[in-house]
Design a protein that fits this description.
Layout (H helix, E strand, L loop, with lengths): L2 H20 L5 H37 L5 H22 L9 H8 L8 H16 L7 H18 L7 H17 L2 H12 L5 H20 L23 H33 L3 H18 L7 H9 L4 H20 L7 H22 L6 H18 L2 H12 L5 H18 L4 H8 L12 H4 L2 H4 L7 E2 L4 H10 L4 E6 L2 E7 H6 L5 H4 L1 E2 L4 E2 L4 H11 L3 E6 L2 E7 H9 L2
Parallel strand pairs: 1-2, 5-6
Antiparallel strand pairs: 2-3, 3-4, 6-7
Length: about 575
């Protein structure tokens, strides 16, 4: 089958989907459920692919140590793998550097930022390589970007009953987080608290459904991520009144360390850009070499950073916690500053667990019988430091609660996370993701005071199926079309390019044998990514009721006043 035939088949399938399923569905909430399930399922499959890919590369790297010394294997693998990641970034998808969350936030705020199939596949492959070679980064940020890109691809294909593309992409991002952590509620909260910073019925519905399906499919595929409660031998946390002051102390320390960490991430990013420019192959390769060398010199347990976090929570001693803290803190700054595709969530949880362990150890020095403190505060520290870095107190508390399923942790999590948030915002306001965007001279609005109308685009409200006329068509043939359809205006095409528009008045008032002779040439058109308020402004200024929507000179849709009214009624 030729490419043209495949494209035609896909277009006919999507036309059937819109005309038969969406437009004629009696209950559009069921259609929404279907589309949200697709988004969540795709995000879950991507997250599982990430897990399997990283596991395979890690196993291969470990196998090589049976042939050569680890001090040779790890730096060499890091060097080669880092170079591969850099090549993918430099030549295929420059948008996939870092965690991907800043890019998603920019796209959601109508800042030009590519989210397409190229970005999704490149992020998936490069992220697997980056984590597989031993960089101490997390997969949660990449799965957020991959989920958002997958949702954007579905939107481009036209598979959406929701008019707000922004909500759809945010739901995909939340589903990516939900699948990575097996934490559907955290994915929903992350969408509302960090990505959109707004609450509406449509937003909550689509994000909840996408995260719900992401969690189900992820669990069905066997991805357990950080489910500490799945280990029946893992003890439940104990929280007493004497622990409360130490929770506040933990929040203060986590907040201050989080400030240093965020500044380090920004400084590392700026330094790499200043020294190496856009030579990502060199940047990531060097980071891979350094991280590989350091990991090779550390105990074997440090070859799996997720395993390190588990060992820390089990209580391996103060010296172990110190090494965990220093190794993760420094290596994460080196790896992330290089632009390697990986997230900050997982390392933040590990660093936070170490900080909590330190505070818990201090409590046992004052209260020798408080043997529970080290584990309880280590778990609370995960949420506190996460919050200090990302500035999302509710998401931080919910993530740790979902991966532990321990109600005893709710209060210490809330105390430490909120304290860390206030300390961080007081000294160094703004999340690390907003700060990273500012390096690229991208400034997001501090407060989301815009209305839903301000964020709608033409592409989210336009009609995809357009009845058009050919410029060579006769006047009588055009008149038959006008009688057959109730539209008041028809776009005119020549070789699939928009050249004019024909209205009923043109048929009555103008003379000529063909459509080309009686049409209004050089019609006003608008791009699908333009804001809806721009279309409204043009219609009011030109006193017209419809505007063709184009991609270049090719017609892809039409927007009418009726479409705008319908879109506003659905907000």
């Amino acid at each position: 089958m030729t490419t043209a035939a495949k494209t035609d088949k896909l277009n006919r399938l999507l036309h059937w989907y819109h005309s038969k399923l969406i437009r004629k569905a009696r209950n559009k909430k069921l259609v929404a459920l279907f589309e949200a399930s697709i988004i969540g399922s795709v995000a879950a499959v991507c997250a599982y692919t990430f897990v399997v890919g990283v596991a395979l590369l890690t196993s291969f790297r470990t196998y090589l140590t049976t042939i050569m010394p680890a001090v040779v294997v790890f730096p060499l693998v890091g060097l080669i793998g880092g170079a591969i990641c850099g090549v993918i970034i430099h030549f295929i998808a420059p948008e996939i550097t870092g965690s991907g969350i800043p890019q998603v936030k920019a796209a959601l705020n109508k800042i030009p930022m590519k989210l397409d199939l190229r970005v999704a596949l490149s992020k998936l492959v490069a992220g697997i390589v980056a984590l597989g070679i031993g960089l101490p980064l997390g997969r949660e940020g990449p799965t957020v970007q991959v989920g958002a890109a997958a949702a954007a691809v579905l939107d481009r294909l036209g598979m959406r009953s929701f008019r707000n593309r922004r909500q759809l992409i945010a739901a995909g991002a939340g589903a990516g987080l939900a699948a990575a952590f097996n934490a559907p509620l955290a994915g929903l909260i992350f969408v509302l608290e960090e990505l959109l910073r707004e609450i509406s019925g449509a937003t909550v519905t689509i994000a909840l459904l996408a995260c719900f399906f992401a969690g189900i499919v992820s669990r069905w595929m066997g991805n357990h991520s950080l489910d500490l409660h799945a280990n029946t031998e893992f003890p439940k946390a104990i929280f007493t009144g004497q622990d409360i002051p130490f929770c506040f102390l933990l929040g203060i320390i986590a907040g201050l360390v989080g400030i240093v960490f965020n500044r380090g991430v920004l400084a590392g990013t700026k330094l790499n850009r200043k020294v190496f420019g856009k030579h990502f192959g060199l940047r990531v390769a060097l980071a891979g070499f350094i991280c590989g060398l350091v990991i090779a010199l550390l105990p074997d347990s440090f070859r799996d950073f997720a395993g390190v976090r588990q060992l820390l929570l089990e209580g391996r001693g103060l010296h172990f916690a110190i090494v965990v803290f220093l190794a993760n803190f420094v290596l994460t700054l080196i790896a992330y500053g290089s632009g390697a595709p990986g997230g900050l969530f997982a390392p933040a949880l590990t660093i936070g667990a170490a900080i909590g362990y330190f505070v818990g150890y201090g409590e046992t020095l004052i209260y020798p019988l408080a043997t529970h403190a080290r584990m309880t505060l280590a778990l609370a520290g995960m949420g506190a430091f996460f919050c200090a870095v990302a500035r999302v107190p509710v998401t931080a508390a919910v993530i740790v609660f979902e991966i532990t399923a321990d109600f005893n942790l709710l209060l210490p999590l809330m105390i430490s996370s909120i304290t860390a948030y206030f300390i961080g915002e007081s000294v160094f306001p703004g999340s690390v993701y907003d700060r990273l965007l500012e390096i690229d001279d991208i400034h997001l609005p501090e407060n989301s005071e815009s209305t839903p109308l301000d964020l709608l685009t033409v592409g989210e409200c336009m009609q995809h199926q357009v009845i058009s006329l050919d410029a060579a068509m006769t006047r009588d043939e055009a008149a038959d079309y006008v009688k057959k359809y109730s539209h008041k205006g028809f776009p005119v095409l020549r070789e699939n390019q928009l050249v004019g528009i024909l209205t009923k008045n043109d048929l009555v008032e103008r003379t000529g044998a063909t459509v080309a002779e009686i049409m209004t040439p050089d019609p006003i058109s608008i791009d699908r990514d333009s804001l809806l308020v721009k279309a409204i402004s043009i219609m009011d200024a030109k006193e017209i009721n419809r505007i063709p929507v184009t991609a270049g000179t090719h017609l892809i849709g039409i927007i009418t006043r009726a479409d705008i009214i319908r879109a506003l009624s659905e907000l």
